[in-house]
Write a structure and sequence with these properties.
The complex is a heterodimer. By secondary structure, chain A is α/β, with parallel strands linked by helices. Chain A contains nine helices and 19 strands. By secondary structure, chain B is α+β, with helices and mostly antiparallel strands. Chain B folds into three domains: about 140 residues, DNA ligase, ATP-dependent, N-terminal domain (DNA ligase i, domain 1); about 190 residues, D-amino Acid Aminotransferase, Chain A, domain 1, CATH 3.30.470; about 130 residues, Beta Barrel (OB fold (Dihydrolipoamide Acetyltransferase, E2P)). Chain B contains 20 helices and 20 strands. In chain B, strands 3, 4, 5, 6, 7, 8 and 9 form a seven-stranded mixed β-sheet that branches. In chain B, helix 1 crosses helix 9, helix 2 crosses helix 10 and helix 6 runs antiparallel to helix 9. The chains are: A alpha/beta, B alpha+beta. Chains A and B meet through helix 2, helix 6 and helix 8 of A and helix 1, helix 2, helix 5 and helix 6 of B. The site of one zinc ion (ZN) has 6 residues of chain A, from loops.
Chain lengths: ~350, ~525
């Protein structure tokens, strides 16, 4: 009989703790030993002792947090490789969320637990594709855990953006996109759709673009928007962190069409309250159907929900005989979807 | 439905008028007939459906969703149509091709009531979320995206590089999806004209005379008329019928059957002022108000408040469009027409002769007669141009009356102002030294003055009656108004027209505010008093 997960996976003030391996997963504050799913600010905090993550995540963390702040020691673990830590076997699988994002499979005494981190089951050009991993216990996110969140195909949203450029050929289109993941995905989608004009970027986006390039991604002609003059940006596409699209930085652009790429744009009130003229429903998270389908595909008999709208997901799982539990981990938010106050731009430039 | 849904979505999130016009132009340019016409009609409210009640939509979604999840979702989204459009569980393979806007419009016109729920469910199954939202808004009559019929016409005019007034004139002759209109605009067909229906022509409007304007104008170039305190109307009489339009183009014929009857059998389009006139005297505006906004009119009202039109311009004489003629020629035509036809319930607004601006200013200052708001100045050579061109026509309103009154009561406002005390009842002194209310003012003050007044009222309240506060009788307000009339409904015996707060007179002691006798001296309609 495998051990009950509650005996070896504990919720502590720092976050989710794997006792036999003596490590925290995505802890909210600095700890001696951390296993990090991906480099977003709400998962990868500064100041840990030892950090275990994919090589991509380690590179992104180091660029975001600064040399020496992304773990005193770093240990890379590639997708599909395993590591034994005090009898706990750790394997990382692609989560499809951002470059380097991983699901964590923990195996201990015959018990299989998967921690998804943030994940997105739809294939993306900018990161390795997600696949469900069979387990007994699934520890999942639920950022978009309400049945009103069903993300449309991203290609259709890109088509709307390109259409808008045609209808408003004199206006600068400034698209808010989170600096890690969303911006790169947006550029890649635009290139796939055949948009080959230069794309102008807010200065805060370049450092992470460089990391993506170092791992072999190509983005075509990218130019700094800050250096370009107003006239050159007429009718051009500018990508900026969400916090920049409403401030003075965006207002100095030419009669801008303000767009925002985020799963939250599905709900009108969200778009209205952010003063967005062109909401683009492009998300790097699983939507409602995908959260449910993934839980089913893993064949887990029990699901713990780390953050998001856990009550609806747990209610839906219960109707299918799956036991759910809300962990309500603190410090997790919506910032990587452009919904929260904290943004990558501030961190990168700070 | 998807292109229409995308248009709606863009319009909802684009506050700028120029952006809305660009979006409408793109729609006109890229969508085929009859989709584009139906789309324009739907967003401007010319095509409205009320096929579905919210209860039906709720019932349909309840059959397909978990009530707990629906409840949480509705709480989160806050709008029923949006919640349903997002939560609707579309089948893995749609039951058929998604309906187009014309197909929806067509089906709504003929579907049997009992078959509608099943049809709606099939439509919702075959559409994506934003098209479902557009569909639900359309069938519940709730497409509101800040686009007026006028804006649609402006976009059409911009797109086809044609004067918007030409579209305005063709509009009454077409109905959604406006096939004949597009055919004409694209050179494929004749201009739509409604020979048998009276058509509204946008009127020519005047600019207020500005401070140094007179000095730049030559008095020999201008004709003066009294500016009457009635309602500007356009009277259309043609072999196919008669109609009376307000300045904004609203058809008010039904409220004035007496005037409409007088137009019957004539053939002209005339511009004038609708007035209540008794024994040759213009009655106060309040009496004209008794006749407004009525679908049918009691015989008693027709007798007590007899209406007529005081004519001052002619747009069409018979079928001849005379709008391009200079003012003096139109005036001559109008005078000759009135002399020849002798129409009932119509007379000529006389020209006011003058030599110099000073002389005219004197006439304006002396005019205290009821029904006169001031003067109109019209250039002798001005053609009749729709809209408000700068220069040819001016309105020179009489100076308002001003009194100093004491604030007595205050009441909370409505809407945006509901948190402020913004309705002010003010009074003046009787000979006995008592304050008597003479009116209520809701505007005239700045936002800063509103905040100041609100605080003053809260700090000087002596009694409260529901939403009303009675205040210390110490604050003097300078009140401007356009006319004073006898009124048996007010204890003071006088009613002020258009009162507004001109200034807050913290410098003036309440005892020095005006007296009722001074206000009564301003009363115009002495007929009742005599
Ligand atoms: Zn996250
Ligand atoms: Zn994330």
């Amino acid at each position: 009989m495998p051990p009950n997960p509650e005996t070896w996976l504990l919720v502590r003030p720092e976050g989710l703790y794997c006792e036999p391996a003596d490590l925290f997963i995505d802890p909210a504050r600095a700890v001696p030993r951390a296993l990090i799913t991906h480099a977003h600010a709400d998962h990868a905090r500064p100041g840990h002792g030892a950090v275990l993550a994919t090589p991509e995540t380690l590179a992104l963390m180091t660029r975001r947090l600064g040399e020496g702040r992304a773990g005193l020691s770093q240990q890379p673990l590639a997708y599909g490789e395993s590591l034994d830590i005090n009898g706990v076997r750790v394997t990382l699988y692609p989560a499809g969320h951002v470059l380097g994002s991983a699901q964590i499979l923990l195996e201990w005494r015959g018990s299989r637990v998967v921690v998804t981190g943030d994940y997105c089951p739809r294939p993306q050009p900018t990161c390795a594709a997600f696949t469900p991993v069979a387990c007994d216990l699934l520890i999942t996110e639920a950022t978009f855990g309400l049945p009103v969140f069903r993300h449309p195909p991203a290609e259709g949203e890109i088509a709307r953006l390109l259409r808008s450029l045609a209808v408003f050929p004199d206006r600068t289109h400034v698209v808010g996109a989170y600096a890690l993941g969303k911006a790169q995905r947006l550029i890649a989608l635009l290139r796939v759709a055949g948009y080959d004009a230069p794309i102008f970027l807010h200065g805060a986006l370049f450092p992470l673009i460089e990391v993506y390039r170092a791992f072999g991604q190509t983005f075509g002609d990218l130019r700094p928007a800050t250096a370009a003059d107003k006239a050159a940006l007429k009718g051009a596409l500018v990508i900026a962190p969400p916090a920049a699209i409403q401030d003075r930085w965006a207002r100095r652009l030419h009669d801008p069409v303000v767009a925002l790429a985020s799963g939250w744009m599905r709900v009108r009130q969200r778009a209205k309250s952010r003063g967005v003229e062109l909401p683009l429903v492009i998300s790097d998270h699983a939507d409602w159907d995908e959260l449910n389908a993934t839980a089913d595909a893993t064949q887990a008999t029990e699901v713990w929900v780390t953050h998001g709208r856990e009550e609806a997901l747990i209610h839906a799982l219960a109707s299918r005989g799956i036991l759910g539990r809300a962990l309500s981990l603190i410090g997790r938010g919506e910032e990587d979807e452009g919904g929260g106050p904290e943004t990558e731009a501030v961190e990168v430039t700070a | 439905m998807t292109p229409f849904a995308q248009l709606l979505e863009r319009l909802v999130f684009s506050p700028a008028r120029s952006a809305k016009i660009a979006l409408l132009r793109d729609w006109i340019a890229t969508r085929p007939d009859p989709e584009r016409g139906f789309g324009l009609a739907a967003i401007s409210g010319e095509l409205a459906f009320s096929a579905a009640k919210p209860a039906l939509i709720r019932a349909l979604v309840a059959e397909r969703t978990d009530p707990v999840l629906f409840g949480w979702s509705y709480d989160y989204v806050g709008d029923l149509a949006e919640t349903v459009s997002l939560i609707w569980p579309a089948p893995a393979s749609p039951p058929g091709p998604a309906p187009t806007l014309p197909e929806v419009v067509d089906a709504l016109g003929k579907v049997a009531r009992t078959e509608f729920p099943a049809l709606l469910a099939r439509w919702l199954d075959s559409l994506d979320a934003s098209a479902r939202f557009a569909l639900i808004k359309l069938i519940t009559g709730g497409v509101r995206v800040g686009v007026s019929a006028r804006l649609v016409k402006v976009a059409l005019a911009d797109h086809y590089r044609i004067d918007v007034n030409a579209i305005e004139e063709a509009w009454p002759a077409v109905t959604p999806p406006y096939l004949a209109l597009f055919a004409w605009l694209e050179g494929r067909g004749p201009r739509p004209l409604s020979a048998d229906r009276p058509v509204f022509r946008p009127p020519m409007l005047a600019n207020p005379l500005g401070d140094g304007d007179l000095a730049t104008l030559d008095p020999t170039d201008y004709r003066a008329e009294w500016k009457w305190d009635g309602i500007r109307v356009q009277a259309c009489a043609s072999p196919g019928g008669v109609a009376l339009f307000s300045r904004a183009g609203e058809d008010i014929t039904a409220a004035f059957p007496d005037v409409a009857e007088a137009l019957r059998g004539l053939h002209a389009v005339l511009d004038g002022e609708l007035l209540i006139v008794r024994d040759g005297r213009v009655a106060p505006f309040s009496e004209l108000q008794q006749r407004l906004n009525r679908k049918s009119v009691l015989v008693r009202l027709l007798r007590e408040f007899p209406a007529m039109i005081r004519l001052y311009d002619i747009l069409f004489e018979g079928a001849e469009d005379v709008r391009s003629l200079p003012f003096d020629e139109r005036r001559a035509r109008l005078e000759a027409w009135v002399a020849r036809v002798s129409p009932l319930r119509m007379d000529l607004s006389p020209l006011v002769p003058f030599q110099t601006w000073d002389e005219l200013a004197g006439l304006r200052a002396a005019a205290r007669e009821a029904g006169i708001e001031g003067l109109m100045l019209k250039h002798r050579a001005s053609p009749y141009v729709p809209g408000r061109p700068k220069g040819p026509w001016f309105k020179w309103k009489r100076d308002p009356f001003v009194i100093d009154a004491v604030l007595m009561y205050a009441q909370r406002g409505h809407g945006k102002r509901s948190s402020y005390y913004s309705d002010y009842t003010f009074g003046v002194w009787t000979e006995e030294g008592e304050l008597v209310p003479v009116g209520k003012a809701y505007f005239g003050f700045t936002d800063a003055e509103l905040v100041w007044l609100d605080r003053w009222i809260r700090n000087h309240t002596i009694a409260r009656f529901g939403p009303v506060r009675e205040v210390e009788k110490t604050l003097v307000l300078e009140i401007a108004f356009d006319a004073a009339q006898r009124s048996s409904r007010h204890r003071s015996g006088v009613a002020l027209r258009f009162p507004r707060v001109n200034r807050i007179r913290t410098d003036k002691p309440a005892a020095e505010a005006d007296r009722l006798t001074q206000v009564l001296a301003l009363v115009e309609n002495r007929r009742d008093a005599a």
